Amino acid sequence: MPSIETFRQTPHLVFGGDYNPEQWPEEVWEEDIRLMRKARVNRVTVGVFSWSSIEPREGEYRFGWLDRVMDLMAENGIGVILATPTASPPPWFTAAHPEALPVTANGVRLVHGSRDTYNPAAPAYREAAKRVAEALAVRYAFHPALRMWHLHNEYGTVSYGPETDRAFRTWLQDKCGNLDALNSTWNTAFWSQGYSEWDQILAPQATQYLPNPSQVLDFKRFSADLLRDCLREQVGVVRSHRPEVPVTTNFMLPSWNHYDQWDLAAEIDDVSVDHYPDTPGIEGDVQVAFGSDLARSFNAGRPWVLMEQATTMVYDYAQGRILARPPGALKFNTLQYLARGATGSLFFQWRSPRAGAEFFHSPMVPHVGEDSRTFREIVELGTTLERLAELAEAPAEGQRVTDARVAIVWDAAAWWSADTRALPSNDLAFLPAVRSVHRALWRLGVNADFVQLGADLSRYRLVLVPSKLAASDAEAEALRAFVTAGGHAVLWYFAGSTDENLNVRPGSFTGAFADLLGIRVEEHHPQLAATALTLSDGSAADCWAETIELKGAQSVAEFTHDPLAGSPAVTRTAVGDGTAHYIGTRLQAEALEAHLHRILGEAGVGKDHPAAGNGLEAVRRHAGAGTYLFLLNHGPDAVVVEARGHDLLTDTDLDGTATLDPGGALILREPANITEH
Ligand code: GAL
Question: Is 676 a catalytic residue?
Fold first, then answer.
């Protein structure tokens, strides 16, 4: 039976993927094992979406096939991440409980026929989910193949309808206490929305014109809490059987915002993520860094699980395109994930199904079989990961898997509030703002974590807040305390213009932070999409301008267009031992890099490696007592880099310089005396 250490520490990086043997005759399982051994697979995720194979009728469990799969894996030294199948209730469930089917914002009750056809607020669904989780835990908690629980799959279903309305009212009663408080928080006097009974309150389904923004924001908070409660219930079930088995749930990054990642992370032992970059070339590589930095940050700086990536470069449902990755790209991107803290790499999926909704989704073993470039690259990747086994050691006590001195604020409610309709500009979206800042740092060769305002910021020199419309007094205070104690903070236009309930702060836009920034924002000047702005220092900008009055801050660059010519666009001000910076427009990529470069300089933050930046990615990963410097060349030209240490990829010692071709990589076990930047 595996010991606690088995769960906490693997002697190798994990490698494998979602495995669905229930979709295949058992002869194929033998072939799967042969190919898994060939590829050095050591982990499979079993049971995601297999509810109808486990429980074909209510209360009638069929574990025979799963017993055989678990045993087969144990016999072959392959660990199992066992999923609860609750993301796909079977037809018997929805037939018996039509009230538990999801209802769209337009009031349409969906029918069975895909996956995720459940309403997280429906008591019948919650009970059935707990029952099937319990049945699995009873049977497999002590199975020697079990390595981790994978609860549900990508929480994210949002539903409206009567079941939701009831749960939403209870949530609001908890939050507001009484109807007067709710009416005031939502300012329901506007458009005659005053509620006189709780039963009148509905989740914000489609309505005639603009919905109440405060109501919508509360509904998003409620939906996120609901998903957290679903997760919490299942965590309780599996932990009650064997608490040492680590528990995860996979986050879909970065595009899903139906839950608060920080809250979900607090419920589980380890964060795992599904990551599908959707742009070819270097932009896709930047996305890999972005997803990895989020995953590591959600897991409090500890190594995190890459639960799903794909062997194709892009699988984009929205665009309907599956793009082949160029040769070598799969390995190169996987090294990026490793550099930034992944415990290995798992894929969706081991083998493509012959039929079913995702029958052309890329797998590790494609339809054409073993004799394929995909499988050859998988075998090569498995061999490479085996060679990198020492990276699997946990960082020393108190050490993060990578260090960063810069943090970007990631905040679910900031995203939800930026999605509010009827803001002064349609270009105030959260994700593009955050991505542009992360991308600029990546290009400058500076690694970053993500944080919440309110978390401990003391390890950082610089905190960036690219999009944060709704901000509470406590959040504003946390940022002030960070700056006063010597930190540098950068805020962008519109931040803190409302409180946490989307009630505008009077006296100055950007009100929560105006005092800290030493400015008063008097008037917004949103720009038409085609309008290009140029600041006095030559910076190119667009989208937004505003009238900023200096109240102690100094202007760093001014607008040059009428009627704002000569008025401040970018400011800075000393506060206590630190500095508060403000950017009152949307800087285009190069100008953003230039301003961040200036601010990094002021904050005393250098590059993570002298050669880093402009497509040369340099990240130090801690494992055991060692540090490992990853150098990855994303650029079109060969580069010569300083390289001292033992390269794990080629098993050679380097002591001087090395040439990295485009797509080239080094993983240097650094000599003990190399100091970090
Ligand atoms: C993930 C999901 C998988 C599969 C994959 C396709 O989001 O967890 O089940 O659908 O996407 O890319």
Answer: no
